[in-house]
Design a protein that fits this description.
This protein is 82% helix and 0% strand. The relative contact order is 0.06. With 242 residues, it is mostly helical.
Length: 242
Amino acid sequence: MMMKRSGLSLILLMAVILAHGQNERKVIRDGVRAYNDGEFAEAEVQFRKAESINEESYVADFNTGAALYEQEKYEETVKQYESLLDQTDDIEKTAQIWHNIGNSLLEAQQYAPSIEAYKNSLRKNPNDDETRYNLAYAKQKLKEQQEQNQDQNQEQQDQDQKDQDQDQNQDQQNQDQKDQKDQDQDQQQDQQDQQQQPVPNEISKEDAERMLKAIQQQEKDVKEKVDKKKAAAAKVKTEKDW
């Protein structure tokens, strides 16, 4: 929204400065000329120069706000006009100030504060159709902003959930891969253990028979030795009885 009321005020308020010195009038006139030529930075310089000449110059302060607005310095514009609220009790001027504050906040996309500023302006001047239009526009922009924020929040939540699901899936895949790797390693270890176990030697039938005969011969030899010992013992005993 363009600040149409502030631009108009630059011309209408020129009559007020006739009560001040010639130098101040010239500086403000130069500022108005630069403003109308679209040289807003130069206009600001001239209006601030007029402020330094007359610190109580409402015209210079008001026009400085307009020059700041056209340079899109909205935060500075709001501060400039807010400082004017304490300089006047005039209802029409106060309505203009609140209107311009609302315009600056609207351009800065601070829709909720701009709505309050327009309401303050209409409290001073209920018949201002431009302010009423800007108020409706600000309400619509606030609604759109809130809906956009809701959509963005929902999109962010959906993205967060998607990221979380992907992380969980990745964790599960990693765990499955680890489990499979551990299982493969266990199987390989079992196979290695089985390969390292000694394999019992297989013997032929002939070897088995020879081993059996050898055992039987050993048993026979042992039995013969035992029998000899018994016979010897019996003989000794008989000799003692004699």
